[in-house]
Write a structure and sequence with these properties.
It is built from 9 helices and 26 strands. The chain is an alpha/beta fold and 501 residues long. The longest helix has 28 residues. The chain binds alpha-L-arabinofuranose.
């Protein structure tokens, strides 16, 4: 029988709230329609931001939001998105769907969105097609509090006070859509561009994110770090705070991808197997980071992750709109448990993307909105934000699935905050419930304060705009607590939250 041993006396490190971050790009209906409908919309909004969506995002305590891309970031020229809206440039979004981008959502609107959500700001700068001056002026525009051309421009555009930029990405995927660069070339640009990401507010320094690798491209990580920390090593503090990693789960590979809803049992395991690969990726890239940064001062920022399926039939292929099932919930549960367990290195992560794109937490259609199964997982896991990871280990369980796509039967992570222990469990099996014994170190009578589950008898079921609550977090009573031991029956294909004290 499977056993989970929890040592509540051994704290392994803080789980940064930013691990539960999100990503929003000018792509499809993520920004326009999904988050921003404009002040004159008939859809309820505050300063153009959809009220229903903002409320749903507040419920999952979004800690940080990355913007404006993605690939879009390395073609984005921020000055196109400021000033009087009617005079802002209209252009074609060449990366995504070939639609008109009217720049009505720009820097001011992004800052307003983050204010309403109550989250930190992560701006991604343009290295691929932008200049050092452009990047430097954007930072000045957003964060300088004195007299300067850019600060004056911001004030003239109606924002007297500077904003707080918490994170700034120096380019995006510069090995690919961000300029097809070689790692050494990018690293030299990183050294140069980041120099001009000035810290105008010394008390609230901007954390700089260097463009890391895709998937298992270890060479990029090695060469970028070697070049960055080579000859005439720049001052460490404030030079690089995070290194990114992007990893998407394509069940059938990049070309075919596979349907989001119509999948076989084998594809279930294939998808979860590929999601579980995140564990290796974090460890392998982390080992290289350890070489250059043994004290773990640089965080890993997995600022694009999630499932990438074939778009929903009849939708614009460039909009990357996909539905979401219990399979996505499992991918989220598996991935977030991995991040929690590696909180010594993973300091930020952003699911791709927030609304209407890829593994979205919210889908919209006109004035309707629904929360996906992934939203519910973020809701269940929100207690881990800012908590202390506890030592925990599983024994007595095996792997499951077809030979080529084996996955662990169960994955878990455990944290503690304000005296309450949060346990998040995933049963990856499509066919078998799992009996699990949980044992704590302390000999005391633990009491369950909250228990919920996400599952569905048909793992292909989706929430629709007419039936938005079909797959959702529900009360769970499949446990018995007796002193320091608990017995839990984890239903097949489920994500479970237990809170005890
Ligand atoms: O999230 C969609 C795209 O995936 C992003 O624009 C890019 O960074 C990545 O390749």
């Amino acid at each position: 029988m499977a056993k989970l041993v929890i040592n509540e006396n051994k704290k392994m490190g803080r789980i940064e709230p930013e691990i539960y971050g999100h990503f929003s790009e000018h792509l499809g209906r993520c920004i326009y329609e999904g988050l921003y409908v404009g002040e004159n919309s008939t859809i309820a909004n505050v300063n153009g931001m959809r009220t229903d969506v903002v409320e749903a995002l507040k419920e999952i305590q979004v800690p940080v939001l990355r913007w404006p891309g993605g690939c879009f970031a390395d073609e984005y020229h921020w000055k196109d998105g400021i000033g009087e809206k009617s005079t802002r440039k209209k252009m074609i979004n060449t990366h995504w769907g070939g639609v008109v981008e009217d720049n009505s959502f720009g820097t001011h609107e992004f800052m307003e969105l983050c204010r309403q959500i109550g989250c930190k700001t992560y701006i991604n700068g343009n290295v691929g097609s932008g200049t050092v001056q452009e990047m430097s002026e954007w930072v000045e525009y957003m964060t300088f509090n004195g007299v300067s051309p850019m600060a004056d421009l911001r004030k003239a555009n109606g924002h007297e006070e500077p904003w707080k930029v918490d994170y700034f990405g120096v380019g995006n995927e510069n090995w690919g859509c961000g300029g097809n660069m070689m790692p050494e070339y990018y690293a030299n640009l990183y050294r140069r561009y980041q120099t001009y990401v000035r810290q105008y507010d010394e008390k609230n320094p901007i954390k700089k994110v260097c463009c890391g690798s895709n998937d298992n491209d270890l060479r990029w990580t090695e060469d970028v770090l070697r070049t960055c920390f080579d000859h005439a090593q720049p001052q460490f503090h404030g030079f690089m705070d995070l290194l990114s990693l992007h990893y998407y789960v394509f069940p059938e590979g990049w070309d075919i991808k596979g349907s989001a809803t119509d999948y076989t049992d084998e594809q279930w395991y294939k998808t979860l197997n590929k999601a579980y690969l995140m564990n290796d990726l974090v460890e392998h890239h982390g080992t290289i980071m350890d070489k250059y940064d043994p004290e773990k001062k640089i965080g890993m920022s997995v600022d694009e992750w999630g499932t990438w399926f074939t778009v929903e039939p009849g939708t614009n292929p460039g909009f990357l709109y996909q539905q979401s099932t219990v399979r996505d919930a499992l991918v989220a549960g598996i991935t977030l448990n991995i991040f929690n367990k590696h909180c010594d290195r993973v300091k930020m992560a952003c699911i791709a993307q927030m609304v209407n794109v890829l593994q979205a937490v919210i889908l919209t259609e006109g004035e309707k909105m629904l929360k996906t199964p992934t939203w519910h997982v973020f809701h269940m896991f929100r207690y881990h934000q800012g908590a202390e990871l506890l030592e925990s280990s599983l024994s007595g369980c095996s792997t499951t699935g077809p030979d080529d796509w084996q996955v662990p039967e169960i994955t878990e992570s455990v944290s503690e905050k304000d005296g309450v222990i949060t346990i998040t469990l995933n049963n990856l099996s499509l066919t078998d419930d799992q009996e699990l014994t949980i044992q704590f170190a302390e000999d005391k009578a633990y009491e369950v304060t909250e228990a919920t589950i996400l599952t569905n008898s048909d793992v292909h079921t989706v929430n629709t705009f007419d039936a938005p609550d079909t797959v959702k977090e529900e009360a769970f009573n499949g446990y018995e607590a007796a002193g320091r031991t608990m017995k839990v029956k984890l239903p097949k294909a489920s994500v479970v939250l237990l809170r005890v004290k």
